[in-house]
Amino acid sequence: MKIKPLSKLSLFAITLIMFYVGSTSVFSQLTVDAGEDFTSCEDAIAVFGTAENYDSVLWSTTGDGEFVTPNELISAYTPGPSDISAGQAKFYLTAFAPLLNEVKDSVLVTIVANPNFEIGDEEVTICYNDIYAFQNAQGGNYSYIQWFTTNGGGFFDNENIANPTYFPSPIIDYSQGCVTIGVILLGFDPCTASVEDVMTLCFQPDAEVDLGEETHYVCYGENYTFADATATGTSFLQWAPLNGGGYFENANSINATYVPDPEFDYPQGCIYVILFGEPISPCTTSIEEYVSICFQPSPEADAGLDATITNSEAFITNATVINQESVLWETSGDGTFDSPTDVTTQYYTGNLDRENGTVFLTINAFAPSTSCPEISDELTLTINTEQNINIPEGESGFSSFVNSQGLTFEELIAPISDKLIFAQNMTHIYWPDYGINTMGDISNPIGYKMVLSSAATLPLAGTANSSVVDLPSGWSILPVTALCNISYTELTNQLGSDLILVTEIEGTNIIWPDGNVFTLTELTPGKAYMIKMANAAQFQYPACQ
Question: Whole-model pTM?
């Protein structure tokens, strides 16, 4: 076979290739370095490769993650689930150059997983007096765990374990209704990020009812409503009579009403009723409360008949009261009762009673419970005033604080008529020896002049006289209608400049304001006085103390 000689072009090409290969092997070398093995958290893993005389590079791995920029020396790797589960991954960095074999290097990365944790339920409700164990909390990859509450007042049995038990504070936690509980976890080095989870723990009150007193009273003919009863933490209520013959209205309400059966319930006096209560989940303890309802007939009261006494007597009550727990006497006047809480007691009249002549006495009867109304009855007590008037021999002034209206003067003076010589008021006279009598019927209050043959005592009895005396201008007779001595200053203070003179009829003492003479210091009951007025006026006798 004949070999053809190479052309000049072929020889040049061969020469050029040999020169290039020779120069590369002599002057440069393709190198790559993936770095030293290291440890990283499972977050994006940074890799730093180096290479020389390369045209391109490529990061690759045996794991299931991905490189962000696989064709750059500096890149980041996002681990996949298998990487994290295995706890490591191997990365390869390959360098490429034209006409040269590729060069590869590897680095082993130990992958530390981030901490993870879940408390479980987002919200949990427990019953009062219960504790809460975090049995569903789970997680891993943490070097430290810390439980906390942001607003609770309770405590953990161990706040640095995965499944602690929380003990609520009845004062702080229950009053808020719910508290927030959380957990913080720290990972293993080099993972520095913390993990946090929170949940709400709420508190449900136990079923509880308050029915008030153990015994409840109701009047005959009335229904009984548990108006003041209260219930908390109940999901269901049911009232029922135990030995009663009646029934409940609104039997599923805490404020139910019991309707008695008079024929069955009243003869027993008292019956028992029961209240069943079911709690609200998650509480499980049911309740039963027993109370009695007692039936009370209404009180009846009769204060007794109207009566009349004299001002020196005490009045003994004669009332009749039944079905009462207590009584109380009251007066419209100023007298006093010996024992106002006894049905039978004595009443002592006061000055105002005697001056008014009447007083109303009321007896109030109270049942054993406030459910029955208070019963009252009253009587009218008439108080006849007694006055024994000592009249001296000869001329004197006479008046009375006893109202003698309805009597004639002869009837009034009858007890001492055998000693009476003469009597007059300002316009009328009585002179029995001469058969003269212009007095007529008594008009009260009025004063008289009289002459007796000897001293005598005139007994009078009746209602109290009026305390107001009309005084005309000029001379008149001033009666004393007060039950006690009255100071002259009452006259001077009330009558002022209208008063000119007051004199005794049987004596020499006077009241003379203009002359500054006041030898008559007191007005005495039973007597009468001459009085002179500049102008007509009224005089009001004050009440006696």
Answer: 0.50
